[in-house]
Amino acid sequence: MTSSLPQSGFPQSRLRRLRESSAIRLMTQETSLSVKDFVYPLFVTHGRDVYEPVEPMPGVYHLSLDKLVEEVSEISQLGILSVLLFGLPDHKDARGTEAYDPHGIIQEAIRAIKQATPQLLVMTDVCLCEYTDHGHCGVIVDDMVDNDETLELLAKVALSHAEAGADVVAPSAMMDGQVGAIRRALDDGGYPLVPIMAYSAKYASAFYGPFRAAADSTPQFGDRRGYQMEPANARQALREMEMDIQEGADMIMIKPALAYLDVIVRARQAFNHPIAAYNVSGEYSMVKGAAANGWLDGQGAILEIITAIKRAGADIIISYHAKEVARWLNAER
Ligand code: PBG
């Protein structure tokens, strides 16, 4: 950056002047976290009285609906505005039918939350991988995930979530055309005001490892590189976001967050849509694992990571840390 003002170097300029006291540091702080920035992901399962820890993600649980209701009340009391739901079905099959069953686990969970804490914004992950027996995000035809045939199912999933009362649907299958297909289904189905938060730049990432254990969604053959993005690509991520916006995305997402801060920065420069970043399971487990071993200060590392994600340009941060960060932020004042 060039400035028209005369540049003065040391010793006239001393940047430490702005760091001398806590008050002046706070006053000149460029990025602040708010509890309102967060979306808290939840894993919902069938049964009663289930509160089962997800081993690689300390503090994260599989919850049955009765426990879910207690959990969302706590989340709402912390001031968190929104949750993102993932479901563990009773039954998996080739076409992931429980994903669009009106009485599937997610549809029931939405109803339970809307009854218990109607003010909480309920977002749902729209994908098939937790519901298919092969673990892929779409329908398999000739050993490949068939893009166009999957669109119809994703549209059914999103519509069934809206019918159950979801406030926002978040398609994460990385099928071309999924946002457009879902927008049409919502509009035709009478839900023109349900927004789409598109997982637009979703990378084929090793950082989803703990989630796949948690959601039991590991592909049974091959991998997701045929549909999720190559980690080496950033320009292509902008094309993904551009296409999703053209198809009607209201919010765009970059996922994972920490290894893709450059993509968040570029998205912020290129688009005026709200940008979400998903601080994924592997990012969570890394910090929790190291902190549990005493290898780093967990709270310090977590706040630094979340601040970096916001500084890069994210408006919405989806994070398993949301509850603990909310507690720290609430205690500050
Ligand atoms: C479903 C989905 C995944 C995540 C969110 N939605 C897994 C995947 O694509 O394999 C990952 C979330 C996380 O790691 O926290 N398609």
How many β-strands, per DSSP?
Answer: 12
N-to-C span: 37 Å
Question: In what range is the share of β-strand residues?
Answer: 15-25%
Q: Could you tell me the radius of gyration in angstroms?
A: 21 Å
Structural class by SSE content? alpha/beta
> How many structural domains in the coordinates?
1
Morphology: globular
Bound molecules: ligand PBG
CATH 2nd-level architecture:
Alpha-Beta Barrel
Q: Specify the CATH class.
A: Alpha Beta
Low-confidence residue ranges: none
- Count every helix, treating DSSP H or I runs of 4 or more residues as helices: 11
> What is the helical fraction, as a range of percent?
25-40%
The largest pleated sheet is described as: 10 strands, mixed
CATH superfamily: Aldolase class I
Mean of the pLDDT scores? 96
What is the H/E order?
HEEEHEHEEEHEHEHHEHEHHEH
- Per CATH, what is the topology? TIM Barrel
Summarize the entry for a quick read:
The protein has helices at residues 22-27, 65-77, 105-116, 147-164, 178-188, 209-215, 235-246, 261-270, 281-292, 298-312, 322-332, and strands at 38-45, 51-53, 61-63, 82-88, 121-126, 139-141, 144-146, 168-171, 197-202, 251-255, 275-279, 316-319.
